[in-house]
């Protein structure tokens, strides 16, 4: 990719993440719009656009970090098959951590572990769907790397929201997650198209 394509990827991903975060925030975060009024809505929407843009910048750092990690891992593990197995193990490990450690840290006495399985499972299904479309547009071997990126790397990028007690189990978890999912899906599906142009 040349520098023009990298700049296009950067700004377009930021826009996608910003609007994804703003729409999620408008739907989920009532206190911001509780007073009503046109200008209150406009300022709140602009503020949410800024949050979405900042979160999408984190998503872009995660994407380029994964591209570097993937190259290093391929040279370290020697075969793509072994690296794919490691990625599948890490997906399972992160899935377990995502519900079990959140349950240990935040569950009250009347809560069961099953409630903490919903978000990791939905994220896993979403990652698998995106990976399937990536595989369909490129080649069969793209599924596991795309699945790993959409699940493990997105979870790592989401970690700051997950570990803050005031944010946990609130609409802010989704306001952080939606721009990450939008930005990561967009750049993953755009990358091969930019390379083929």
TrEMBL record:
<feature type="transmembrane region" description="Helical">
    <location>
        <begin position="171"/>
        <end position="190"/>
    </location>
</feature>
<keyword id="KW-0472">Membrane</keyword>
<feature type="transmembrane region" description="Helical">
    <location>
        <begin position="82"/>
        <end position="101"/>
    </location>
</feature>
<feature type="transmembrane region" description="Helical">
    <location>
        <begin position="142"/>
        <end position="165"/>
    </location>
</feature>
<protein>
    <submittedName>
        <fullName>KinB activator protein</fullName>
    </submittedName>
</protein>
<feature type="transmembrane region" description="Helical">
    <location>
        <begin position="113"/>
        <end position="133"/>
    </location>
</feature>
<keyword id="KW-1133">Transmembrane helix</keyword>
<dbReference type="GO" id="GO:0045881">
    <property type="term" value="P:positive regulation of sporulation resulting in formation of a cellular spore"/>
</dbReference>
<feature type="transmembrane region" description="Helical">
    <location>
        <begin position="41"/>
        <end position="70"/>
    </location>
</feature>
<dbReference type="InterPro" id="IPR024164">
    <property type="entry name" value="KinB-signalling_activ"/>
</dbReference>
<feature type="transmembrane region" description="Helical">
    <location>
        <begin position="7"/>
        <end position="29"/>
    </location>
</feature>
<dbReference type="Pfam" id="PF14089">
    <property type="entry name" value="KbaA"/>
</dbReference>
<keyword id="KW-0812">Transmembrane</keyword>
């Amino acid at each position: 990719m040349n520098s023009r394509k990298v700049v296009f990827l950067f700004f377009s991903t930021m826009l996608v993440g910003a609007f994804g975060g703003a729409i999620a925030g408008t739907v989920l975060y009532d206190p911001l719009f509780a007073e009503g009024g046109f200008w209150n809505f406009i300022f709140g929407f602009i503020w949410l656009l800024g949050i979405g843009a900042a979160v999408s910048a984190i998503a872009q750092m995660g994407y380029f970090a994964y591209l570097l990690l993937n190259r290093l891992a391929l040279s370290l593990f020697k075969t793509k098959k072994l690296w794919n197995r490691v990625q599948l193990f890490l997906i399972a490990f992160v899935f377990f951590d995502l519900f079990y450690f959140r349950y240990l840290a935040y569950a009250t006495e009347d809560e069961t572990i099953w409630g903490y399985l919903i978000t990791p499972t939905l994220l896993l299904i979403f990652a698998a769907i995106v990976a399937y479309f990536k595989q369909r547009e490129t080649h069969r071997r793209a599924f596991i790397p795309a699945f790993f990126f959409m699940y493990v790397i997105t979870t790592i990028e989401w970690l700051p929201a997950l570990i803050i007690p005031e944010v946990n189990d609130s609409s802010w978890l989704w306001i952080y997650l939606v721009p990450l999912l939008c930005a990561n899906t967009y750049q993953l599906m755009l990358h091969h198209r930019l390379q083929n142009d």
